[in-house]
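Lecture 7 notes: from sequence to structure.

We start with a single chain of 426 residues. Read the sequence below before looking at the structure.
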Amino acid sequence: MGPFEHPQNSYYAATANPFGERPALAGAVTADVCVVGGGFTGLSAALNLAERGYKVVLLEQARIAWGASGRNGGQVNLGLRKGPEDLIAAFGQERARALFGMAEESRRIVTERIARHGIKCDFKPGTLHAASKARDCGWMQDEIDCLERQFGYRGARYLDRAAVRQELGSDIFHAGVLDSGGGHLHPLNYALGLAAAAEAAGVQICEQSRVTRIEKGTLNRVETSGGAVSAKYVVLACNAYLGDLEPRIAGKIMPIANFIIATEPLSEAEAREVIARDVCVADTKFVVSYWRLSADRRLLFGGGERYSTQPPADIKEFVKPYMLRVYPQLAGKRIDFGWGGMLAITVSRLPHVGRMDNVFYAHGYSGQGVAVTGIIGQLIAEAVAGTAERFDLFAAIRHQTFPGGTLLRHPLLVAAMLWYAMRDRL
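Now the structure, written as tokens:
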């Protein structure tokens, strides 16, 4: 299964809702759609397809949400990784508005599913984007203006340095954007809730069922060591764990490592001091730090760069200095959890979505996967059903292959990322 095989010290795993292991695929079965991958993309697609009446089998190589979907920062952020002005510059106003509109629809999908299926995942509203550099202040104000004028979005407001200090209890930020939409949640419990909803809709979930081969044809055959699924349609939802399963698209994404720590529970006063409104936070560095409070008032902090598929010897000590740069007052707090995993980025930082005959794929969310996967799963179901206009808005985004292909992309990315990381420090 590769690096980070077991998130042994994950706060999410320690506080997961009950979800018993599902049996592995055994023997030959047939379905309308075979979904490969049990994370947010696969679960969202499977749920949407089953709700439309399709017979769906979902194959997960380990456990549901074993990858990034069960380990991430849990942030449901605004828009896509490209800001509104960049979207307009790249795609024109009409298409940019459509892409942004679907990203906003995706955030609504998250909250609606939580409510409709009674998913207990500690959702809290609100996000804050904190300016790490003085020059960020100008574009942040321009971005809010663009959101209002071009996209009709009025949920974001600008915070000056004093206001950010009041919100975050830290002196290092120059400004910020406080967004009333979106929010944060327990990602593993959200994924487990989606899995339960998918099963209730008729999806057959098979865990410990790593796909070894896909034989493509009028009826695709998806093989594991224990059996095979014959299905007209296949959905590849593997993200950073795609490997060599489909070489034609593997070079469009880059798996990178990310790490999070969780402190001991803070007092109510301490929690209000670090994040006054209980929103989730991310800064503007190229190597982003991000943090939020858990339901039991722990500070969950993600930060630090490592361009290797192997975790550091001590994740807690690796991430802690990044937390203390923001909150030196937490130096005496115990770090109870530290874990890591792999996510996938694209060159453009926009998701790579498409179709090869009757094989659909979506991956490379570049840190925006908690929210965006909601709409992507819906678009895949629409396309399978024969209505692909909205799917094609994402599928038409041109994506570069990482230089060097799958063999050399990692060392070349390391060189580039180290350069930008050095710029962050300077």
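The mean pLDDT is 92. Keep this in mind for problem set 3.
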